Amino acid sequence: MTPQALDALLALPENEHIEFKEAKGGFHFDKLVGYCVALANEGGGRIVLGVSDKPPRRVVGTQAFDQPARTCGGLHERLQIKVLCHEVAHPHGRVLVFEVPGRPRGHALHFEGRYLMRAGDELVPMSPDRLRAIFAEGEADFIDQLAATALDEAGVVALLDVQGWYDLRERPLPSTRTEIIDALVARRFAVRQESGLAITNLGALVLAKRLGDFDGVARKGVRVIVYDGVTKLQVKDGKDWMADSGYAVGFVKLVDKIHAETPASEEIRAALRQTVYAYPKKALREILGNALVHQDLSERGTGVVVEIYDDRIEVVNPGRPLLDVDRFIDENQSRNERLADALRQLRVCDERGHGMDAVVMHIEAHQLPAYQCRLGSRHTTVVLSRYKALNKLAPDERVQAVYQHCCLRYVTNQITNNESIRERFKIEKQNAAQASRLLREAQEAGRIKAVDINVGTKLMRYVPYWA
Questions:
Q1: pLDDT recorded at residue 354
Q2: What is the DSSP string of 334-384?
């Protein structure tokens, strides 16, 4: 590597494929091993010694590893991968650039039993979800695995709700089974084998008449539990049941049934008595659809759980999210792309990243508290709470509501200001100071920021902290 090539390298931002370290007086070999493990686990990259850690980066020189070839030999002995080292005689000092190849497919590297990855400037153990994903790379994707085999055409049609599938697509049912099977095979819901036909896990998850007919996905149905009160102490009237239909063909009935179990009251409107539910059905639909699409299907013996309390609904799905929870509203990344695509085509979910936008819209329209997201070691929980008056909200609830409002306004190309906050919380104009306090709370918490701090209070506009 030439000094000119090194200068070009210094202009790159530090990311998952490059690490810069000063290492003026030296660098511990075990630390180098750890960074090589992390870089290899993240797809390969470079670690550069003799360069300032913080931008703007400059060459400071390093005295580390005066015999680079011997160092590379030691790395190969420890890790069984071929790491190359370039010693660059830069005008401002000696620099070492170690090129680390990516890990083998289906294999994660470890150092002294620790499977490492990088988090900022630190080396941390890889999450269980990430490790399972790596180890499963050599296997067929869960949705491509076979749920039932050695079937004939009649057997496939007996297990899958093909009538419901065609109804969702608003198309007439073909006149022959062969045409139906051809359509199922084209979408990888079924495959042809020498021993006959087989239904994939994808086909079972989306179209099963009964998920219990398929051992591999029997526990992937949505479990619904209705509690009496605000704790798990007592299940209400034994209301603990498992939805057994495929996600697409049973989705509408499932949402209706869950909504019917939520608290409701009767109001008289236009001389008619109407039932008013505590939660908007459309928000429940979006949260449940997101949970189905983003669950970690590799988790065995578990599925999505909906828990209904007197004061809230909690939707739990296996696996931690791929995105930061702060970015649910403005970004989208499907964990199960083909499942998401299949459900999107059947209008069960929206794969364009608008799901949580819609949730916040409905929350604000019904004056509900902001949704909350809790991360467990191996699951994600989204909480939708019943109505609370503004003066009953805890400080963190107020801040979260302002933050989500600001995110929604940002992604819909609208401004967040005192007026929009008054509209969100139904605050009268003469109480504008109350809206200003809410904005100040969120700003002091680091959740939002002013676009221009030099304008007057009446002209002040806000965006999310990451904008």
A1: 60
A2: -SSHHHHHHHHHTTSS-TTS-HHHHHHHHHHHTTPPPPEEEE-SSEEEEEE
At position 138, the amino acid (one-letter code) is: G
Give me Rg for the CA atoms of the chain: 28
pLDDT at 120 over 80: no
Express the helix, strand and coil content of the chain in percent, nearest 5 each: 40, 25, 40
Of residues 7, 8, 49, 52, the one with CA closest to residue 32:
49
Confidence of residue 221 (pLDDT cuts 50, 70, 90): very high
Q: Is 15 exposed, middle or buried (0-12, 13-18, 19+ CB in 10 A)?
A: exposed
Map residue 96 onto helix, strand or coil: strand
Residue type, 65: F
d(CA 131, CA 129): 6
Give every CB contact of residue 297 below 8 A, 6+ residues apart in sequence.
142, 143, 201, 220, 318, 336, 339
* For range 194-214, the mean pLDDT: 96
| Single-letter amino acid, residue 7 | D
Q: Burial of 376 by CB count in 10 Å (0-12 exposed, 13-18 middle, 19+ buried)?
A: exposed
- CA distances (Å), 185 to each of 14, 144, 255, 270, 401, in order? 45, 12, 29, 52, 46
Reported pTM = 0.72
List all residues 6 or more positions away from 416 whose beta carbon is below 8 Å from its beta carbon: 405, 406, 409, 410, 448, 461, 462, 463
Say what the pLDDT of residue 272 is: 61
Rounded average pLDDT over 72-80: 91
Question: Which positions ≥6 away from 289 have C-beta within 8 Å?
Answer: 251, 343, 348, 349, 350, 355
Cβ atoms < 10 Å from Cβ of 247:
28
Angle in degrees, 0-180, between the axes of helices 432-444 and 395-411, rounded to the nearest 10:
90
User: What's the Cα-to-Cα distance from 113 to each of 23, 37, 40, 116, 123, rounded to whole Å?
Assistant: 26, 11, 15, 9, 14
Kindly state the tokens that stand for 6.
Answer: 């090194």
Structural domains in the chain plus CATH codes: 3-137 (3.30.950.30), 142-215 (no CATH), 221-385 (3.30.565.60), 390-464 (1.10.10)
Task: Give all strands of the β-sheet with 196-200 in edge-to-edge order.
Answer: 146-151, 196-200, 190-193
The length of the chain, given as a count of residues? 467
Q: Residue 43 has what DSSP assignment?
A: T
Name every residue whose Cβ is closer than 8 Å to that of residue 408 and which is 6 or more positions away in sequence.
329, 357, 360, 361, 364
Cα–Cα distance measured from residue 61 to residue 95, given in angstroms and rounded to the nearest whole number: 6
**Cis check: omega of the bond before 321, within 30 degrees of 0:** no
